[in-house]
Amino acid sequence: MKRLKTLRARFAVWTAGLLLATLGGFGLFEYVSLSSSLYRSEDDLLQLSVTQVMGVINYENGQIATSDNISDSPATIGSRERGISIRVLNQDGQVVQSTGTYVFAQPVDQSLIRDTAYFETVPDPSTGIPVRVYYSPILQSGHVAGVIQVAHSLAGIQETLAQLLVMFLLGAPLAGLAAAAGGYFLAARALAPIDRITRMARELSASDLSARLALPATDDEVGRLAQTFDGMLARLDESFGRERRFVADASHELRTPLAGMQAIISVMREERRTPDDYEHALADLSDETNRMRALVEDLLRLARGDALAAKLAEKVQVSSLLESLCDSLRSIAEQRGLALVCDCPPGLTVMGDTDSLLRLFLNILDNALKYTARGQITVQATNDGRFLRVSVSDTGAGIAPEHLDHIFDRFYRVDPSRSTAGSGLGLAIALEIAHAHGGHIRVESAPGEGSTFSVELPL
């Protein structure tokens, strides 16, 4: 029963059922068509026999007479060879001539004499086989002078129809079984990759997503499913790898301030210190605590990134936001000998979350301030009718090509010594916020020529 519930078994049953239904309809149509054709041919044959008999009938003294005996007449030889019985009756119902056996089993009845031709089917008294009889009046001067009666057994037609019926009744089930077997075989071959996908899905674990189906590329549904499955595994493998690296980096980043704090406390507990030493230790502990707090907050912002999309229902005045942000950071830039220029036309708005967009632009500007030793930082905003574009350009050290593809990765730093302040999460958070708003961030940079970060947000 379990095997019968499989897709290949159902496919085989549907194939056999469809074929049987098709054969049944076709067989019924053929049976009815052949039956109608055979009976129509039988009536045409009887009418032709009457025409042949008419050729040997004449009249003597107003009575029907035949020039030849119809049993020996060449005009009726074809009818006799086909087993057709012929009887000629006069207007009184008396038999003038006859040949054959079927019609003579019936008594002569005056009601047979009619002025119109007609057919009837009667059983043969000896065998019970139906006999087709045709009555055709003999008209003389507009009056019925007699009738020609021709009859032929329908045994041949019934035998032909019976053979056809037996052929369909035996052939259709055999064809259905063959179709079911063929359908099962074809379905098994077509669904083999799906079985392979199922087995692999059962064997997969989060610790190892490197397995692939690697099936031959085919441009069909199963081939596309296999390719999609392999693509999904590749994305999952990359995602799990990225998360593992994220956890490792987060552990490392959190371990550093904790280790520093533990070292400071251990040193201070070794012996009594002066008040200045304790103040200095507390200042160091405060720095490490602030560093860890900033890291935890950044991690929480990343964790909330997936829920941000539900909050994007606020009309944000981007022009005012950028102006205020630049005003707040301008003093810091001037302390470092940098010029901070904000070129933003008024009235630029997008639908989003004000706090998140503020964090996005702050992280990019903070990154520019960190890596720009001299020159200026320029913030520009434009509206092209579809997107709001905000670019932040600096005259800093620039980014080498091998780092450009990774600067938005979590905890990634261009400086391998990690001597620059920060956790390496600022640009990753900025990209998450841009994606949550349906936008993107692009970067153009060259070593020694500065960098330009462009934020695109849909209007």
What does the model show?
The protein has 459 residues and is α+β, with helices and mostly antiparallel strands. The chain folds into 3 domains: 3-159, PAS domain (Beta-Lactamase, 2-Layer Sandwich), CATH 3.30.450.20; 221-303, Helix Hairpins; 310-458, Histidine kinase-like ATPase, C-terminal domain (Heat Shock Protein 90, 2-Layer Sandwich), CATH 3.30.565.10. Helices cover 50% and strands 20% of the residues. The protein has helices at residues 7-54, 77-81, 155-203, 221-270, 275-303, 318-335, 354-370, 401-404, 426-436; strands spanning 57-60, 63-66, 85-90, 95-99, 118-123, 130-140, 143-153, 314-317, 338-343, 349-352, 375-383, 387-394, 440-446, 450-458. It has a 5-stranded antiparallel β-sheet with strand order 4-3-7-6-5, covered by helices on one side. The two termini are 58 Å apart. The model has no long low-confidence stretch (mean pLDDT 80).
Secondary-structure blueprint of this entry?
Elements: H1 7-54, E1 57-60, E2 63-66, H2 77-81, E3 85-90, E4 95-99, E5 118-123, E6 130-140, E7 143-153, H3 155-203, H4 221-270, H5 275-303, E8 314-317, H6 318-335, E9 338-343, E10 349-352, H7 354-370, E11 375-383, E12 387-394, H8 401-404, H9 426-436, E13 440-446, E14 450-458
- CATH homologous group name of the largest domain: PAS domain
Radius of gyration: 51 Å
Find the CATH topology of the largest domain.
Beta-Lactamase
CATH class of the largest domain: Alpha Beta
Q: Top keywords for this entry?
A:
alpha+beta; Helix Hairpins; 5-stranded mixed sheet; 5-stranded antiparallel sheet; Beta-Lactamase; single chain; Heat Shock Protein 90
